[in-house]
Amino acid sequence: MVSLVFIFALISTSMSSLDVTMVPAHPTSGDIATFIIDITNTGETPLDPVTAQDILPVGLSYVSDNRSGLAQGQKVTWSNIGRLEIGASTQIKLVTRIGPCTTGRLENFVTVTGTPPTGYSVMDYDTADLFVNAPPKKRAVNEESLVMGDLSASALNSASAINNRRIRSMQG
Known about the structure:
mainly beta, Immunoglobulin-like, 5-stranded mixed sheet, single chain, 2 helices, 2 domains, 5-stranded antiparallel sheet
């Protein structure tokens, strides 16, 4: 299963906003989760350089990205994702893996900074919450499942194998 998380960063020299959407809402342990980080300059001046940093929560590990990010532990950094003209956008696709024993709520934190030709840098940040489900448990087939009324073909085959072993052990 692939999870997609959309993070929209709107950078402006006067104000900034960030919107986060996640599809699907409940990935499972062991899944791949892809974060789509959309960055748009909504300000009145070009920004150069533009940098981004993603702090992955414990339980997520870096797999790859499309913008040559530098992964160090839980931190992924893009030191210069390029110049953003007024109204221009760029996108980072960050692929992560959810740990096999990871469940519950995870919070991913993204920061984007842009530098105008004059004045102070502008910054925006946001979080994306992932709610990770445990994988479905595999049901063990044993004699109790037969007593409880589980008459599936695999349960019957398993019970037959158990009975055959018992007969052989009594004969031997």
